[in-house]
Amino acid sequence: MASEGFNSTYDPQRPVCRTGIEAQPLANGMVYISHPEFSSLIINKESWGFLQLCTGLEIEALNEIIPERLGFRLTIDQLRSSISNFASRGLFVGSTEVSRHYRLFDASWLTARLAPLMRWIKTRWFAAVTLLAFVASLVLLSLNWHRFVDEVGNAALAHPIASILLYYLTFIPVALLHEFGHATVVRHHGGEVPEVVIRSNAHFAVLSNTSVLREREAMIWYLSMGTVVDVWVWLVLLIAFHFFSHYLLLMFVLPQTIYFLIYSYSIFNNSDYLKVVASWLGQPVPSRPWNFVRDGWRQRPESDNARKLLNIMTVSLAIKIIITTLLIWTFATGVYRVLVLYAIYKFLVYLIGKWPEFAQRMRR
Length: 364
Description:
Layout: E1 22-25, E2 30-35, E3 38-44, H1 45-53, H2 59-70, H3 76-88, E4 101-105, H4 108-114, H5 118-121, H6 124-143, H7 145-158, H8 160-188, E5 195-199, E6 204-207, H9 216-243, H10 247-263, H11 272-281, H12 289-298, H13 304-332, H14 337-363
Helix pairs in contact: 1-2, 4-8, 6-9, 8-9, 8-10, 8-14, 9-10, 9-11, 11-13, 12-13
């Protein structure tokens, strides 16, 4: 690769890949790449080969040597799109990644020890037991609902600032367990999990080689395993809440409860739930779910599975609207400060997630 020192400006017509990129071959023809200037990635070997060709050649000259060096052809438009995509991730000299994540540690050792458990977990009986655990959680929540609402209201009045911070912070370790659920399935199928990362919004994620999940059943288990972990965490927290009353315990129960009541079956934000349903029905995941639902009811899809996907998404959206309305009514007629604090929390999360983008705009 060319030296970075001769030109520090990104030129899409003459892209220069950064030097010093560490590359590690993975299963199924994938490559794990890392560098201090961009977030670690898992890409296919063809993409890695392409990056190695980006030494400052004109885009036309680069396009001419790709078939000879890599064995496939790209149109100029496809090449420009690929260059733009890699630039948005900060892989070229002078390019900047908008939203970064940072490596914390190698997750291989932990997922390697958890992976053998998948032989018992990836079974119908465990799926049935998990469903019973979910039902038990709903029963426990209903039995303690009035106390739960009262304690949430009291926490909003007594500890408003601490409650906002703890609502955010207590969800982070549970989210990490959720990600390890996904990653363990990948490891079980022979894929690598080279790192645990922290995102710019302070949430954790696990970088995994998901290319090994070739069968639909494996992909469904992968997509659903995070929620399986969440169900058991929620059940444990609700059992503790049933017998004990403590502010810190409430701050662990609250975000998990809101997650299951509103977000676990959401059809938006590229959710695991929507991916599972689409994968189960053999349908592509709608890139714009709201448009898919709206257009689907204007003109019904032709295939039976597409109609099933539309019906499931519609029912899920209706349930979400009903439960959200009931929650708003519950706290609006009780301690309305809970809604105010939640609105502040959502705004702060938005700012935290967007701050790298805002910072980049200010530097321009």
